[in-house]
Amino acid sequence: MNPSQPPQRQTPSTGNQAQPSPYQSTPHDPANPYPQQPQQQQQGFPMGPRTDGFAITSMVLGIIAVVSCYFGAIPGLIAVIFGHLSLGKIKKDPQTIGGKGMAIAGLVTGYIGIAVTIFCVVALALAVNSDDGPFSVFGEEFQESFEAEMKKQQEELEESARGSEELVPDQE
Amino acid sequence: MRAETSRPSVLIIAIPTLALISAVLLVQHYFPQISCPIRSQTGIDCPGCGGTRATQHLLKGDLKMALHFNAFITSGIIAIILFSIWSLLSKLLTGKYTALPINLKTACLALTMIIVFTVLRNL
């Protein structure tokens, strides 16, 4: 009884695997090679699918996002958007559009860039409630200069308030 | 492999990169002593740390100090500028821009360089 069960499970699974393959190969086969091949010959690439521009954009911005530290979310977000758009395009038409590896590289590096920025925002949010003050996140030097600047502006405000008080009796 | 394109792909990369650098320099101009939150919280230098100081020194012409603060970003900026000049020259001479060698191989090379650089500077 028991040895007869596994073959029965295996046969329908192989049947399921065989079914989708004719669906994948049928669409876009006859029409697409003709408009793509002349472009490939002009650019000097001999064979294979054409690399998607979105994938290149995504990957370049992703690498910039990794390097650009605490504002990596700006190029990172664009890299992630372009990466997902590119993967969608490649999924629809894998035979004429290439660059899946580049799109994935862009996605990974883009998400790393966003994660780094999220870490910075969380650090800032935690520092707001800490004893050191919210701007301790940006380093001691910055906090000192920030507090000095705040003091200076406060004094200037008080001085201008005094000045306006002195002006009023002069006009009378 | 030296590929040629009719598209100015160098400028498509060079212009946003230079815009990003000038945006950072603008922030740095108004908040001169701002430090990266990652550096002040964890003590780790990330790959871009010191990039602003390096760019400032590069703009002043002090290549030695620029390389000292961030060798990777300094050499990257110099490479982008040199490649832009080369590409524009080839446009003038042959009528076509030199294509950037961007593919998965060069990207993996760049990422490996970034990781090695980050590990080495934090040792």
Structure characterization notes:
The complex is a heterodimer of chains A (172) and B (123). Among the domains of chain A are: 47-131; 139-172. In chain A, 74% of the residues lie in helices and 2% in strands. Chain A has 7 helices and 2 strands. Chain A is elongated and about 80 Å long. In chain A, 29% of the residues are buried. Mean pLDDT of chain A is 72; it is low at 1-27 and 35-42. The interface between A and B is medium-sized, with 35 and 34 residues.
Quick structural summary:
The complex is a heterodimer of chains A (about 170) and B (about 120). Helix content of chain A is about 75%, strand content about 0%.
The beta-strand count of chain B equals 2
Mean pLDDT of chain A: 72
Helical stretch count of chain B?
6
Question: Rg of chain A, please?
Answer: 31 Å
Task: Kindly report the greatest chain-chain contact and the residue count on each side.
Answer: A-B, 35 and 34 residues
Please specify the SSE layout and strand pairing.
The complex is a heterodimer of chains A (172) and B (123).
Chain A: H1 5-18, H2 20-25, H3 33-43, E1 50-51, H4 53-67, H5 73-92, E2 97-98, H6 100-128, H7 140-171
Parallel strand pairs in A: 1-2
Helix pairs in contact in A: 4-5, 4-6, 5-6
Chain B: E1 4-5, H1 9-30, H2 37-42, H3 51-60, H4 63-69, H5 71-94, E2 97-98, H6 104-121
Antiparallel strand pairs in B: 1-2
Helix pairs in contact in B: 3-4, 4-5
